[in-house]
Amino acid sequence: MSDDRNVSGNKVDQVTGTETTGHSWDGIEELNTPLPRWWLWTFYATIIWALIYTIAYPAWPLVTGATAGVMGWSTRANVAADIVAHEARNEDLVTALLDADMVTLQQNADLNRYAVARGAAVFRAHCSQCHGSGAAGAKGYPNLLDDDWLWGGSMEEIIYTVRHGIRNETDADARYSQMPAFGEILEKDQIGDVVEYVMALSGEDHDAQRAAAGAEIFADNCASCHGESGQGDREQGAPNLADAIWLYGGDRATLTETVTNARFGVMPAWGQRLSEEDVRAVAAYVHALGGGE
Amino acid sequence: MSPADQPQSLYAARVPIFPRRVHGFFRNLKWWIMAITLGIYYVTPWIRWDRGPDMPDQAVLVDLASRRFYFFFIEIWPHEFYFVGGLLVMAGIGLFLFTSALGRVWCGYSCPQTVWTDLFILVERWIEGDRNARVRLHQARWSPRKVRLRLSKWAVWLLIALATGGAWVFYFTDAPTLARDLAGFQAPSVAYVTIVILTATTFVLGGFMREQVCIYMCPWPRIQAAMMDADTLTVAYREWRGEPRGKHRKGAEADALGDCIDCMACVNVCPMGIDIRDGQQMECITCALCIDACDDVMERIGKPRGLIDYLALSDAPREMAGEPPRPVWTHVLRPRTILYTAIWAAFGLALLYALFMRTDLGLTVSPVRNPTFVVQSDGSVRNIYDVRLRNMAGNARLLRIGVTSATPLDIELEGSSGSAAVEVPANATLLQRVYVTATPSSPAASGDSTPLTLWVEDANGGTRALRDTSFNGRNTR
């Protein structure tokens, strides 16, 4: 708050003898304390560094692109080189995975660990959209953690299913089963009776009288695929109706809809999209999830 | 201050400081602390410690690659990093304690910046002479002699800096092996890069930036300033005794003067370039060299020592009134320092307890929540747990995993049919998937959430580690 001025006409603070900037807030004036000079040099050095850096790496925008950098430096090229290096490092493991007997894979701890880790990545990228990130499935999409398998849960069966898929037109070896829509074959009452019988098979609450009538209809129409006692048939991909697991749901309304209209789940043939090592790896992962046989 | 007839620049050059040589108690104390701290720094990585075969035999080793930290008989695993955290907390509170009792003793005596700067100034004095010779050399034009002195000084600095940066890397791998590799240019490039960086920073910070590091770069002066109060023992000038200062000549006017003869000895020895007679300053690192310098002068002119001294500012009014200062212990022992000591000791005791209570068997359990449970075809309910087993012993062990709960539950290990035991290699962790199943009709299967305990024990007997977790039934919300 002083009006002292030095020879060059700048205001000077009385207490410290330092020039002020002339800025004042609520009567408090800002001292014009000089910064250390090395600070200034550091500042210049960073500017020079930035120029060198942006010339060395692709950076400056041009009309139709950007400068290419010098000496071939680019972060994209670095990433590509890193990927190649990692693939080269895993080459032995990939070869071993392609040569491995998948049934005894678990006895080779290192290779098994690699296969399961690689399979988990493949699963997250390609399978989790339908089967869920935890592989628990959803209505119509099988849960891969339980012990129920439509087509078999051994390593070979899983590999076959992954490679050829289910009910698709793209792979001639795709697993194929089709349940007729019994709404066109049976009367509504008969369907109701069969539903009661199926519920009886899996031990749910049911109407005993209608179930007894349904047993006969079941033997005539359903047993050829689902078996005499509803235990299913993996050769045909016919679900086990006597266990506690339902793919589409086990309540009366859902079962009625299933019998009337039938179901038609589809899985792509991954052998056409994934490399052989990825197919093997994802099968190892699925087998290790807890349901593998 | 700045000459008033020049327009002031926005940027100021460093005012060079040429600390003069000084003798005395505090100077000797600083030499001793320098010798001990540098000795610890350079020697520690070379101390051997036998941990048995396949284990590193270096007493202090930060093994980043295998994520282990060895400190004599202690081996810290990543999950035990709270030991390091606890030690850092203790270091922080210890700094608070010492600062509130004795001011910036850390800065003045044991800060690496102070220690290495002191060493660099020592070299400078050996090669270029004491203060007056250095001032003359600084002002002199470049001559063959100046070039020779400067180059030899920088060469010795560079050697010290190289030894400093070189010693650091030995903490991170087996020292003798690395020394051989470094000499044969076989060492990993990260070792050379680290040495170059630390050599450069030591050279620049200790040789050229010196007090500027403390004033402009270091956050501690600001924090430490908040740790001090009027009872803190700090370096101060007894102005009531020294003022008015002036040259003592024979005659009546000498009687009117204080004890300070304005010899500037305290200013000339100060490595921070300040005048302690101006009062407490942010720059002061309480290295006490001005005390030594002033005591020396006081002795020569036959006055009592202690014109500049460690004293508590709260004593100033008493001393001005001619009363003796209060005893030192009343300044050091006060609620604040006692509280700091108590907190510091509590952390220390907790860490010691944790250190001696830990077992060589570790277990963490993370229940798989995606999905929360799996229904099996027979209606039984299965939960999946990812269990991390830590075998912290020096030998491979067969570890048995089990479950304890109020309701019967079956346990099964992924990948090992039937057996509920798994072999974990020495000094390693193993991730194991564990399936726990409840039979269809059991309350655990049909209920909500059931508490259970997963445990792991050495199959040949020994300690057991356990973790409480829960089992999700079909009605889990």
Task: Tell me what the structure shows.
The complex is a heterodimer of chains A (293) and B (477). By secondary structure, chain A is mostly helical. Chain A is built from 10 helices and 3 strands, in the order βββαααααααααα. Chain A has helices at 37-56, 75-89, 91-99, 109-131, 155-164, 188-201, 208-221, 223-226, 252-261, 276-291, and strands at 20-25, 28-31, 35-36. In chain A, helix 4 packs across helix 10 (276-291) and helix 6 crosses helix 9 (252-261). The N and C termini of chain A lie far apart (88 Å). The relative contact order of chain A is 0.12. The model of chain A has no long low-confidence stretch (mean pLDDT 91). Chain B has helices at residues 25-43, 82-102, 105-110, 112-128, 131-139, 144-169, 175-183, 189-209, 211-217, 220-227, 239-242, 253-256, 265-268, 289-300, 316-320, 328-332, 335-357, 443-446, and strands at residues 11-12, 60-63, 68-71, 74-76, 233-237, 308-312, 361-367, 374-375, 381-391, 397-405, 410-413, 421-424, 428-438, 449-458, 464-472. Chain B is α+β, with helices and mostly antiparallel strands and 477 residues long. Chain B contains 18 helices and 15 strands. In chain B, helix 2 packs antiparallel against helix 17 (335-357). Chains A and B meet through strand 3 and helix 1 of A and strand 1 and strand 8 of B. Strand 3 of chain A pairs parallel with strand 1 of chain B, so a sheet runs across the interface.
Tags for this model:
heterodimer, A: 293 residues, mainly alpha, two-stranded antiparallel sheet, 3 strands, B: 477 residues, alpha+beta, five-stranded antiparallel beta sheet, four-stranded antiparallel beta sheet
